[in-house]
Amino acid sequence: MPSTSRTRPDVPSDLPGEPSGFRHRMRSKPGIGHAWRFGVFLVGLLFILSGFALAVLPGPLTIPPVLFGLWIWSTEFRWAHRLFHKFRVKGEEAWHHAKRRPVSSAVLTVLGLAAAAAAIWAVNHFNLVNSGKELVGLG
To answer: Engineered SS bond to 80: which of 22, 74, 128, 130, CB 3.0-4.6 Å?
Structure first.
């Protein structure tokens, strides 16, 4: 009997990981496989929610935690693997575009950073957060 006969048919074979690797062994055990997938889902969700929280809370780097959470999900879930692949292809296209046109990419990056700095300055200078709280009745 081949060694692959021990694997379950619902274990995704097109996802990363060697058939003899740790993740594959975890996926192939009925009870542990579901607990493993649930744990992977929770860890990925934690990173994605932290990325969204960084969008609201003061702090940089909103996108990396979201992409890292999606990458974690892509190790177990086919839909996340397909979605992550699309993001990866778009990122590679953007990188190649930036390398082909370094001056325009640099100018757009500097303008984007200047716009972000101006927005942060305006929010602080005009107390827009406090005004918004008063407008909705929270302040």
So the answer is: 74
What is the pLDDT, as a whole number, of residue 3?
Answer: 45
Rounded Cα–Cα distance for residues 49 and 102 (Å): 33
Residue 122: both structure tokens together: 């305006």
Give me the average pLDDT of each 10-residue run along the chain (139 residues): 46 58 79 89 95 79 89 92 93 93 92 90 88 84
Residue 118 is predicted with a pLDDT of 92
**Which residue range is the domain that position 82 belongs to?**
3-100
Burial of 33 (0-12, 13-18, 19+ CB in 10 A): middle
Residues 136 and 68 in one domain: no
Total domains in the fold of the chain = 2
Distance CA 63, CA 72 (A): 14
